[in-house]
């Protein structure tokens, strides 16, 4: 369960399930906003915190330690293809069952994409996922940077280049029963068909017995689009990937925050009525 410090001056006024991306979202923004958000979540014992990330399990451990993040109740990693307990990282077999029904296996995916120049496999060894980046962006991709962090670190020179590979990748993988997901201009994930952040969160909510009406989803990049496809309230935090904002269109259940990272989540909680205006100031 998430850490719950004693607080008296702020609070949530209704049950909350927060299903949130990490890089650039829950772990992003000002440290003061991250602390305020974590403290706020601790004010109700029925709060559930779900991390939903493209990071692998080892990379999540590193980030949680680096940013002093609380342990979530549930961790959905590898773009929705891995589900573990947030406390000890043991697999949640009830939720992982069925995720690989349409998965042909990573070796077959690698074989089909072998020799595709300019595409470099990332060092992400997940049983139900194969990940690539564009040549020249390996170091940036390995850090799982958010779109805004990627731009600050000089990723603009390669940003968008990954999309040039998508037609050829689709052609080579035709008939394998996989989905192809690009994001932030440098990430390309091959996933089991129908498995993504959104579908796995949907299964998790059903398993937890929690309603979509008490849930907020949060993200900032194109691989978070599936979260917003759930049709429940969500927030695209400040400085979200342009491609994500374009795909969101005019969905009135999605709040487009001005503040980045955790600050954007706080802004959305106030917007949707989970907390008082005074708390959000």
Features:
2 domains, disordered C terminus, alpha/beta, single chain, Hypothetical Protein Ta0175, Chain: A, domain 2, 11 strands, four-stranded antiparallel sheet
Question: Would you give an account of this structure?
Answer:
- The protein is α/β, with parallel strands linked by helices.
- The chain has two domains: 17-98 and 196-280, HAD superfamily/HAD-like (Rossmann fold), CATH 3.40.50; 106-192, Alpha-Beta Complex (Hypothetical Protein Ta0175, Chain: A, domain 2).
- Helix content is 34%, strand content 19%.
- It is built from 13 helices and eleven strands.
- It has a seven-stranded mixed beta sheet, sandwiched between helices.
- A hairpin with a 4-residue loop joins strand 3 and strand 4 (82-85).
- Helix 2 packs across helix 12 (261-271).
- The longest helix is centred in the C-terminal third of the chain and has 12 residues, at 197-208.
- The protein is globular, with a radius of gyration of 18 Å.
- The two termini are 27 Å apart.
- Mean pLDDT is 88; it is low at 1-8 and 277-281.
